[in-house]
Amino acid sequence: MKLGQGKLSRRRLLGGAAAASAALPALHELIPHQSLHGGGAAAAAEPHMHGMGDGGGGAHAAHLGAVGTVDPRSNGFDPQEMLRDFDEGRVVGGVREWELVAEEKEIEVAPGVKYAAWAYNGRVPGPTLRAREGERLRIRFTNGSKHPHTIHFHGIHPSSQDGVAGLGAGNVEPGKSTSYEFVAEPFGLHLYHCHTMPLAEHIAKGLYGAFIIDPKNERPPADELVMVMNGFDTNFDRSNEVYAVNTVAFDYVHRPVRVKRGEPVRIYLVNLLEFDPLNSFHIHANFFDYYPTGTRLEPRDFTDTVVQGQGERGIIELRFPYAGKYMFHAHVSEFAELGWMGFFQVEE
Ligand SMILES: [Cu+2]
């Protein structure tokens, strides 16, 4: 590898990808075939490219995604399973309880692109915590990493349980534990994340997850999916080089999300992107009801595109009237080209 040309840069990735964007379905054909190679421990900080000269404009289209797919076993979590993995914890003495551990963990966010993440319970995003409105909740938190962390929940609770430095237990030092206790309110779709400074870094490293509070009267049955929109700043320049839903770029292109024609589908969509103020979700050839924050039982919109700011989230409900393969992606085109893209496979 030649020195000085190897850094994974968002602009270089995009420079090539843009050339290919006119033929969107062809993009992932281009993207997965170039080797983007990690070269040892340094890969966690700076993925390097192998065998890529600077010649030939179209060549850069191929930087992201590399060869093949990310093996879920190497990460210890699988974006396919994360879609429908809801963690209801366990009820102990009338309190719904979870145990979360923060730890350092190298994850693969695109084929060959390693990222030195910080993770709750070994996964990015962390477990999707799910409770019922009005329940008493307890989250036992242990910091197994080398840096101080917290868990800050969105919702309504006393300041002492807010997971912020200087309030309640404040920052939890390495090796220490604490518990957060509060009542599950309001019903809706929320999130949790570390709230230790510098905040953007602590979130962007991967310490976040979805937090669902179901209404007392349940929502109608549906095939329920969790999609956490995220990104990875692989070279620490405070902009993301890789974008995804549930962490692994293009995973749902390679392995489409399987759903049934005519059946209700409910998507819990959370935006945990850092460094970019806005993210979005767009689906092809279908429309959906949208419930911002999930805190009302009536949809606000009937649309095919929603925009979410940082920390924003909402519930999408739809039925696919036709079998087939339907693309979904960020309508921020750059993000789509850098990994935030997938397909629904609608089956009879
Ligand atoms: Cu932290």
Q: In a few lines, what is going on in this structure?
A:
With 348 residues, the protein is mainly beta.
Report on the architecture of this protein.
The chain is built from 7 helices and 23 strands. With 348 residues, the chain is mainly β. It has a 6-stranded mixed β-sheet, with no helix packed on it. Strands 3-7-12-11-9 form a 5-stranded mixed β-sheet, with no helix packed on it. β18 (288-292) and β19 (301-303) form a beta hairpin. Copper (II) ion binds next to loops. Residues 149, 194, 196, 202, 207 line the site of copper (II) ion.
Q: What is the spatial order of strands in the main beta sheet? A: 14-13-16-21-18-19
What structural class do the secondary elements suggest?
mainly beta
Low-confidence stretches: 1-6, 16-63
Average pLDDT confidence is: 86
Largest sheet: 6 strands, mixed
What is the ordering of alpha helices and beta strands?
HHEEHHEEEEEEEEEHEEEHEEEEEEEEHE
The Cα radius of gyration reads 20 Å
Strand residue content: 35-45%
